[in-house]
Write a structure and sequence with these properties.
Elements (H helix, E strand, L loop, with lengths): L4 H12 L2 H17 L10 H22 L6 H7 L10 H11 L2 H12 L4 H8 L3 H22 L5 H4 L4
């Protein structure tokens, strides 16, 4: 499972938009994975199983935070006021900031498909939604990133632009 850690952390960061929160999320997900190891089906993909656990743990934590009245995180507040100008032309910084502005469902779908290399079907299984939903979320995320790019005049990687007129 340790070789999955960088990918799992990257996915968790795409959900939480915060490195420290992502590390906490991954730690909680690993605890859940160890506790439910008997539920893992040998011969299936361990990485997909772990991504599902991270996704479900994140949803549980968001619901718990909403019940407790902690609806807006500090990172969300920072992101809301963060201008897109002034990134110094760094694609990676722009992309990270732009991804943070996407809705969580689009961000997670885009991360699974473009960053982690899952097929739409595999991403749909991880996110527990139909294939078409993943396709539309990825398309909407690409469109939103292009719109943010147009406003900032930064360069977007070809993978983001692919399939967008």
């Amino acid at each position: 499972m340790s070789r999955l850690l960088p990918r799992i952390l990257r996915f968790a960061r795409s959900l939480t938009r915060d490195s420290a929160a992502a590390e906490d999320l991954v730690q909680n997900a690993y605890i859940k994975a160890v506790e439910s190891l008997a539920q893992f089906t040998p011969g299936t993909r361990l990485d997909s199983w772990m991504f599902k656990i991270v996704q479900n743990t994140w949803i549980d934590e968001k619901r718990r935070a909403q019940r407790n009245g902690n609806v807006i995180s500090l990172q969300d507040a920072r992101d809301a006021g963060m201008p897109m100008q002034g990134h110094g032309g760094s694609d990676r910084v722009f992309l990270r900031a732009a991804l943070a502005k996407l809705p969580a469902d689009q961000r997670s779908a885009l991360t699974l498909v473009l960053v982690e290399g899952y097929s739409y079907r595999e991403a749909a299984e991880i996110l527990k939604v139909p294939d078409g939903t993943v396709m539309s979320r990825v398309a909407r995320a690409r469109r939103a990133l292009i719109d943010l790019h147009d406003a900032d005049h930064s360069v977007l990687p070809h993978e983001i632009k692919r399939g967008i007129p």
